[in-house]
Write a structure and sequence with these properties.
Helix content: 55-70%
Order of helices and strands: HHEEHHHHHHH
CATH superfamily of the largest domain: Cytochrome c-like domain
Number of domains: 2
Number of strands: 2
Distance between the termini: 65 Å
CATH class of the largest domain: Mainly Alpha
Largest sheet: 2 strands, antiparallel
Strand content: under 5%
Number of helices: 9
Structural class: mainly alpha
Length: about 210
Amino acid sequence: MKSYRRTLLVSAVAVGLSFAGYATAADIAKLEETCASCHGKDGASAESDVPIIGGISATYIEFNLADYKTKARPCPEAKIKTGTNKGKKTDMCEVAKTLSDSDIKQLAKYYAGKKFVRAVQTFDPKLAKAGKAVHLGNCEKCHANDGTEVKDDAGVLAGQWTPYLRKTFQEYRAGKRHMEQKMEPVIQGLKNDDFEALLNYYASIK
């Protein structure tokens, strides 16, 4: 009898886990559909003012969504790019506040498992060369391998959209966006020309 009950219990748990798995897959599909309306399929944004998020570390994505939920970083209004709500206005703080902690973890894991598709954009070769020197002297320690390496607490810089990165740098310099303590002296120590050179360097990496 005990063996029979144990078998039933194991079967029930297995069935429960199976259904939970299907629910999670369905939830992720719905969440990803919402994100894709601005960030593109699998996070490969085709919009220069919208960051590429596919291939970013799960920790980094969770951290940033948490910042949006608490409005710890700017949430400029933007129009939804595609889908049934195309043209409607929203912002990332509004989007993030609808997400549960579980939603955020699922989305972070999903996008972390995708490929980072670098943006194809123009750049100035001379500035890009200068930018490489700036990167190696100031940024390489955390944003390793020319800004291509995926790390828990660092975003991928190589191939990220230039307009988005420029705005990000401006927010950091103005103190409008949270950054790691180790990053602050680097950001404040760079000049305008240094930032422009960095932007061209990261745009040059295909």
